[in-house]
Amino acid sequence: MLAYEMGRRLSAEGHAVPLCALLDSPGPGLLSPPPEDDAALLAGLMASWVDLPAAALRGLPAEVQLQMVLDEAARRGVEPPFPDVERGLRFFRVWKNHVEALHRYTAPRWERGALDFFRAAELQPGRPEQLERAWMGRCPVVRVEVVPGDHDSMMRPPHVDGLAARIRACLERAHAA
């Protein structure tokens, strides 16, 4: 949504926006409902790394919840998006603000806009299908490409190389135009 709004504003100010790429981004009206509490938000955020249900986290201090995430990640041999509890607290606060901003954003129409939407081929549980539908009608052109992986794995090996190649092709097309 941030890329869309930046492109829309730059375009409104007369700047060229040769590429606005959205990576499996839900738009207004297709966002999942806000999590019921911080435990549900953290469990959902960490689902790609660890399997800790919200019920296991609920009622515990944030520091304990984050330590549980780190311990479970270490047990599974995966690297979480933060290395320690202190940075986990910052990461979580930023994510929580991000989720709240996403739910408030209305995505005004972008009169001269064009979007390149990269939709993940694999649907994660609880995510709506065809997220690009939220962007249709908000600007004149919406091009959709389906890429391997799910919302998270499309941006990690082995899928990220294919995604990068497709984005590079879009940049070359935009540059040529």
Question: What descriptive keywords fit this protein?
Answer:
177 residues, mainly alpha, Rossmann fold, 2 domains, three-stranded parallel sheet, 6 helices, 3 strands, 10% strand, globular
Description:
With 177 residues, this protein is mainly alpha-helical. It folds into two domains: 91 residues, Alpha/Beta hydrolase fold, catalytic domain (Rossmann fold); 65 residues, no CATH class. It has six helices and three strands. Strands 1-2-3 form a three-stranded parallel beta sheet, with helices on one face. α4 crosses α5. The radius of gyration is 18 Å and the shape is globular.
Mean pLDDT equals: 93
CATH class descriptor of the largest domain: Alpha Beta
Strand order of the main beta sheet, please? 1-2-3
**Unreliable stretches:** none
> What is the count of β-strands?
3
Oligomeric state of this protein: single chain
Largest sheet geometry: 3 strands, parallel
**What is the gyration radius calculated from CA atoms?**
18 Å
Task: Tell me the structural class.
Answer: mainly alpha
Find the CATH superfamily of the largest domain: Alpha/Beta hydrolase fold, catalytic domain
Helix content: 40-55%
Calculate the terminal CA-CA distance, rounded to whole Å. Answer: 25 Å
Architecture per CATH nomenclature, i.e. the level-2 architecture of the largest domain: 3-Layer(aba) Sandwich
Principal-axis shape equals globular
Along the chain, the helix and strand elements come as HEHHHHEEH
